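Session log. Operator J.P. requested a structure for one protein chain; no other inputs attached. Running the standard single-chain path with token output.
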Amino acid sequence: MTKNTRFIAIFILALNILVLWLPNQFQTSGIQEEWRYRAPFDGGITTYNDIGSDSSEEQFITRPMYGLMNGLSYVLFPESFMGHHMILITLLLLKGVAMFLVFAVLFPHHPLWGFFAALLIVIYPSDTGIVSFRTFHHHLTVASILYSVYFFVRYYKSHKRAHLVAMWIAQLIAAFSAETGYPIFFIVPVIILLLEKHFTRRVFQLTALYYIMPAITFAYSVYLILGVQTSWQRTALISYTIRDYLKIILNVYTHNFIDTWQSLITYFVSGSTANDKLVFGLITSATTLGGLWIMRHNPTQVITSKRSLSIKFGITITLGFILVLAGYGMFLASRTHVLTDFRVYMLSSVGATIVVITIGYA
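Structure written below.
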């Protein structure tokens, strides 16, 4: 993949994200937690725990980075919510770039595949909190997990310690932003097994290295939760029957692949505004032009046998389906989260994006 290809892909991605802000998005202000985060700053901060009432409450004790983005936005623009807009745009771009890099390192001869995946992960409509200020930490979790995968594969190929350290840092940021990524952490080493094509000593060594940071952060989080009666993990958990779990799992898949697209199509046909249609047209046009440029100017696009491609697509789709459930896994036993589509499908949409894009690319 050429440098120009990377530049065009990231440029189109950034352009599409900015287009999302056309329908008066820069006029959006805080709704709930955002205002609570501003209060300590306006009143003066004395300690780290003063940064946002939510982050200092015991129920969010496992998320030390929960208030980081809100605090930074206040520092940048203390008199408005413009900082929130800038950070949200940045997080969406980081998430899209991370997805593109993961596909680039795994499928270097198919840049178009990663290009479309990067564009879709930013706007995948299964979660209603995509452009909400209340989802900063969830976007950061998704992006950080994807970067940990990228650096994991880079370390597998290069053995450079810098990639290993970068992987651990990404995992640490993800784990302390929101604890929703542990099921995906558990699955990621399967990628190395697929690259090696069979179990080897190296597979076990790399798996152990990848599990080090999640194991440390998970043990630390459990220690904190056990000492705090008001943690949200304790107050939200509920016991379900096997039948209930099966219904929830079925709903996760139907929501990601059927309901969310039906709702989007229905809205676009009957309820969308002129601005919505303009945004759709601009995104479609930019994506088409970017895709055509990549197809024409990328010299690394190679012809692969149909059988090899079919196997590759099949494995990728299967892994995507697994990631859909893994991304939702931490919410399966939550009495409140199973009733909403706000902030709970961020990680699940990673798997959904992989499935949809791979089927379309195939």
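Operator note: Confidence is low (pLDDT under 50) at residues 46-56.
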